[in-house]
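Minimal example, chain plus coenzyme A.
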Amino acid sequence: MYTLKKFHADSLLRDEKRFRSFYDAVPLSRQQKVDRIKDPETKAVSLGVGMLIHEMAESFHIRETDIITNEYGKPMVAGGGPPYFNVSHKHLWAVIAVSKRGDIGVDIESVGLYRPKMAERYFTPNEVRWLNDIRDENKRRYEFYKMWTMKEAYGKMTGGGLLDGLEFDTTEKFPLLRFTTQDMEDGYIVTVCERA
Ligand SMILES: CC(C)(COP(=O)(O)OP(=O)(O)OC[C@H]1O[C@@H](n2cnc3c(N)ncnc32)[C@H](O)[C@@H]1OP(=O)(O)O)[C@@H](O)C(=O)NCCC(=O)NCCS
């Protein structure tokens, strides 16, 4: 069981006061991250991510100084959770998945064109075969992005990142893992990976 919260950062692009109030609420580490980003949309969504983490910390009564990152960049509560959480962002969308039970990973993507060369390069032979067997083009491109989010969410659950995700074969049986994919507005999909 997990909760998923999402935030669309367009208001931060349009409303300077709101941007400032979010900026003042997040910890110095997030402020510095936001300061380093030049692109306005990426800046806004990074602040949105910071705010989602801030609100999660507040609701669990933990200090944000107790949130550390592992050697691969995964943010987590020092000494282990609960809460267990993970964040992802794409364009102006930011999401956070939070669990009281155990490690969790989340990934958001925008469903675009099928990218056969990317599949060949990054997916396992079983995954490429499985995708190429799908006749319906719309289904194939949806499954391609779903697969991508599953691999990323898995790597973000383990904390190892994309390298773990690329090794993970989504066509195999995985009774110890639970994946949940949900469609969002505007063609975005989010996948959460938890240990079952
Ligand atoms: C984690 C990773 C898959 C994210 O890729 P992405 O699709 O570009 O980004 P997403 O929007 O889904 O997620 C970004 C968020 O994931 C979190 N994150 C970063 N590294 C993570 C990891 N290893 N595991 C889980 N979450 C991670 C961060 O909170 C980040 O948001 P923030 O930078 O605004 O705080 C990718 O960056 C990766 O593989 N990182 C590992 C890199 C590595 O191996 N570094 C070795 C140290 S040199």
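The longest strand covers residues 188-195. DSSP finds eight helices and eight strands in the chain.
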